[in-house]
């Protein structure tokens, strides 16, 4: 199926009832909203905040993140009717980036982060307009579970440094994301053909394409973030011990480890910023990835 045929199918096919839903019926809604989102977070927002003090949004962020958790939980319970809810939430999640703008965390607004958030309403709109079969229930449900875990983490992180001891599991969220993509790939390539379910071909192609792309990106990020820094930390510890011996100094092991951790993390990062610095590794929704931009 060519691009033109896919566009035509998107505009004219699908469940007639679904096509009458609010924010779904318009052929321009997702494109206009995504364009305005990009314009605000990349140009208008930073310009407005340039000479202003950053907002303290901690309490609002806590409420927002747990509201997203509640929304995805309800969506799983409502099943079929939740398709519209999951679609609308893609617009709500623009707030993720707006928080960055208002807090003047511009280093977190990477190109891939913006592209991800801008593309998701369009992708979700295509699926809800053309793919009303049950084949999307499983990927959507799986994605909802990931979001519940992810935004629970964000909500806890927004509470401040006192939550540090409870947030040791950030690395495992990245693993869960990668497994999500693997499961979706197997589901689309193996399970659907074996089940004999009738579905649109372009829906299959879009699902497979994004799953492979973001699985690759998440894997590369995981290796760079969690695997490569381990040998570096060991090297720094060995080098530090050599320096201590050569200078005849008696530093405690705890002080030495703390010093090396500060070198790796960067002393300018606050606890809450560290949690949100890597937030792109956790977001999909549908999928998401963004490299961490060094300060």
Automatic annotation (TrEMBL):
Which residue ranges traverse the bilayer?
20-40, 61-78, 134-157, 178-196, 202-223
GO MF terms held by the record: fatty acid elongase activity
Has the keyword Transmembrane helix been applied to this entry? yes
Q: Give the main EC class.
A: transferase
- The signal peptide, as residue positions, is none
Membrane-topology annotation of the record? Multi-pass membrane protein
* EC code: 2.3.1.199
Q: Which keywords has UniProt assigned to this entry?
A: Fatty acid biosynthesis, Fatty acid metabolism, Lipid biosynthesis, Lipid metabolism, Membrane, Transferase, Transmembrane, Transmembrane helix
Q: Where is the protein situated, by its record's location annotation?
A: Membrane
Q: Which GO terms describe its biological process?
A: fatty acid elongation, monounsaturated fatty acid; fatty acid elongation, polyunsaturated fatty acid; fatty acid elongation, saturated fatty acid; sphingolipid biosynthetic process; very long-chain fatty acid biosynthetic process
Q: Which Gene Ontology terms of cellular component type are present?
A: endoplasmic reticulum membrane
> Catalysed reaction(s)?
a very-long-chain acyl-CoA + malonyl-CoA + H(+) = a very-long-chain 3-oxoacyl-CoA + CO2 + CoA
What family classification does the UniProt entry report for this protein? Answer: Belongs to the ELO family.
Q: What is the name listed in the Swiss-Prot or TrEMBL entry for this protein?
A: Elongation of very long chain fatty acids protein
Q: What is the lineage of its organism?
A: Eukaryota, Metazoa, Ecdysozoa, Arthropoda, Chelicerata
């Amino acid at each position: 199926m060519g691009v033109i045929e896919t566009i035509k199918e998107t505009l004219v096919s699908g469940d007639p009832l679904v096509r009458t839903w609010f924010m779904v019926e318009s052929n321009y809604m997702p494109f206009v909203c995504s364009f305005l989102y990009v314009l605000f977070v990349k140009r208008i927002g930073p310009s407005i905040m340039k000479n202003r003090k950053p907002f303290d949004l901690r309490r609002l962020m806590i409420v927002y993140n747990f509201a997203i958790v509640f929304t995805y939980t309800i969506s799983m319970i409502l099943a079929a009717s939740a398709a519209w809810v999951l679609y609308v939430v893609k617009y709500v999640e623009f707030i993720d980036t707006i928080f960055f703008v208002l807090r003047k965390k511009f280093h977190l607004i990477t190109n891939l982060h913006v592209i991800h958030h801008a593309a998701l309403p369009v992708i979700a709109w295509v699926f809800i307009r053309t793919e009303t079969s049950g084949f999307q229930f499983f990927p959507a449900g799986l994605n909802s579970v990931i979001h519940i875990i992810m935004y629970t983490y964000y909500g806890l992180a927004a509470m401040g440094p006192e939550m540090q001891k409870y947030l040791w599991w950030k690395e495992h969220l990245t693993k869960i994301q990668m497994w999500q993509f693997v499961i979706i790939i197997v589901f689309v390539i193996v399970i659907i053909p074996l089940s004999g379910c009738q579905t649109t071909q372009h829906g299959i192609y879009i699902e497979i394409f994004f799953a492979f792309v973001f699985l690759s990106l998440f894997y590369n990020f995981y290796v760079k973030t969690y695997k490569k820094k381990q040998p570096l930390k060991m090297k720094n510890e060995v080098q530090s011990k050599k320096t201590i011996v050569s200078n005849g100094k008696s530093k405690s092991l705890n002080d030495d480890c703390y010093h090396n951790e500060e070198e790796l993390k960067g002393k300018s990062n606050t606890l809450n910023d560290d949690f949100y610095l890597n937030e792109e590794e956790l977001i999909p929704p549908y999928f998401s990835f963004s490299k961490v931009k060094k300060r």
